[in-house]
Design a protein that fits this description.
The protein is of the alpha/beta class and about 150 residues long. The protein is built from five helices and seven strands, in the order αβαβαββααβββ. It starts with 10 loop residues before the first helix and ends with a strand. The protein binds adenosine-5'-diphosphate and magnesium ion.
Length: about 150
């Protein structure tokens, strides 16, 4: 990244906060947000169960060139990697029980990989392991099918 001589407006700041009314809209928002992502970035997705984190990941991954069909909640596997224009590491650390378990996952490498983007569900479980350059997104319920996506 570095310091740009021009004024730079992060597209995320103009797209967010956003309201979506369906899973399809949340996925579409993810695709647009992905346009601003560079290899090496880490995105932390906060929100309750069912808030739409995985749905948003599906859009983000699709925007990075992955097949959205392959994006499922890695709750039991903890991490899945999707091939694409930019490889995507999708982590769900909801069930993680210890720092050692995070290490066993190869967390360091996953977050440090300069050629991939890492997307993390339940980042509050590993807050102190997130890099300083992490981007935070928060999803909240607005009624049954509405969701608000904001910078976290
Ligand atoms: P999380 O990963 O946060 O637990 P998921 O993305 O797996 O959440 O699930 C979100 C659920 O909410 C899905 O069943 C989806 O169909 C539903 N849903 C309803 N409205 C929306 C919306 N606007 N955006 C995302 N998901 C929605
Ligand atoms: Mg999920």
């Amino acid at each position: 990244m570095g310091v740009s001589p021009r004024m730079h407006v992060d597209p995320w700041a103009t797209l967010l906060p956003a309201r979506t009314a369906s899973p399809e809209e949340t996925e579409a928002l993810g695709r647009r947000l992905a346009e601003a992502l560079e290899p090496g970035e880490v995105v932390a997705l906060y929100g309750d169960l069912g808030a739409g984190k995985t749905c948003l990941v599906r859009g983000l991954a699709a925007g990075l060139g992955a097949d959205p069909e392959g994006v499922t909640s890695p709750t039991f596997t903890l991490v899945q990697t999707y091939a694409g224009r930019v490889p995507v590491h999708h982590l769900d650390v909801y069930r993680i029980e210890s720092e050692a378990a995070l290490d066993a996952l190869g967390l360091e490498e996953l977050l440090d990989s300069e050629d991939a983007v890492a997307l993390v569900e339940w980042p509050e479980r590993m807050e102190d392991r997130l890099p300083r350059h992490v981007r935070r997104l928060r999803l909240t319920h607005v009624g049954r099918a509405g969701r608000e996506v904001s910078l976290g």
